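Re: How this chain folds, sequence and tokenised backbone to follow
How to read it: Take the token row as a discrete description of the fold.
Start of record: The labelled sequence and token lines come straight after this line.
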Amino acid sequence: GVLWMSAVFNQLGQGMQQVLLGWLVFEITGSGAMVGAVFAARSAPNLVVGFVAGSVTDRLDRRLLLRVSILGMTLVSGSMGILAITGNLPVWGLLLATVALGAFQAFYMTARQAYVLDIVGSDGALNGIALISMAQRVGGIFGALLAGGVIHHWGPGQAFFVMGAGYIAGLLVLFWLRRAGASVPQEREALWQNLVSYFNALRSNRALSVLMVTTAAAEVFGFSHQVVLPILAKEVLGVGPAGLGLLTAFRFFGGALGVFAGAAMGLVKRQGVLLLTFMALFGVGEILLSQSPNYWSALVFVTLINIMATGTDILHHTLLQLSVPNDQRGRAMGAWVVGIGMAPMGQLEIGYLAGLTSSRIALLTNGLALAIGALVLGIVMPRIRRL
């Protein structure tokens, strides 16, 4: 319960961040490529930090890592708020601060997902991860709506402070975590040995490396759709920051619905096939959004996209942690963070394509790539179908 509530508050900050960064950069520059750049800056640390975070998470108390990473996000948010209010937040400064937010978030996600299994054990892995995923979506809904309202009424500077307040609330709740968890690893390697065994696991554990590839594919062609939302909202749908906030809230609402679909996944034996199915339908949702005739249909299609996105996410988390021994679960989540570290490629690509052509063509292109890519992965990597 404590971890769930902390995740809600943390994701409230993340929900605000998604609306705030995209809207602010597009408002300042009018460039779809720069919107892609700021989202890429947030995701870029995952590629490097994922390796270190996985090893550190298997080495140190995960509760301490959770607290330190949230404190870092709080300090960065407050600094951005001060600079924005005083008019001293240039685009390059915003990008630099976004990189720092992404680095702290990478440590937080790795430690949190590993700690879930510390609490519930392998038998409860799917349900535990689904519950935390629900907390993320609940917090994200309120964060997105709050960001749209605060930007509209008081401006982006104040929105950064409210975002920081969400992180502070999540940090305070974490101090009620009293136990390390029943499934926490009992033996801890030296950090350098941990890193060496991490790379050995990636080389020898076929399931781990395959799941990293599918995670990267979903990030590059699927989750990158969030870059287009500020452009779609302002230029195509004709809505302001409050409209973008509602559109982003429906992303998280779709994610919440996806958690219920995820709860039934434990009954499916061929979860690898299910993963590929969710990825293909994820792409289909993007194709439908690209053809959306109005704002209300866009809300429906964004919901559909994120039902599939959440199913993909939950399956990746679960299959990755179950593909390694108990003492390597932090490294498994580090592998997931490295996989999502490929997101900047998709975010830069879709932002550039939206600026070069249109947001509709960018969405259509990535949707087709993801749907077709899921089918191709199922053919060229038969190991996925056997998971």
User: Anything to note?
Assistant: The longest helix spans residues 91-120. The CA atoms of residues 325 and 332 lie 9 Å apart. DSSP finds 17 helices and no strands in the chain.
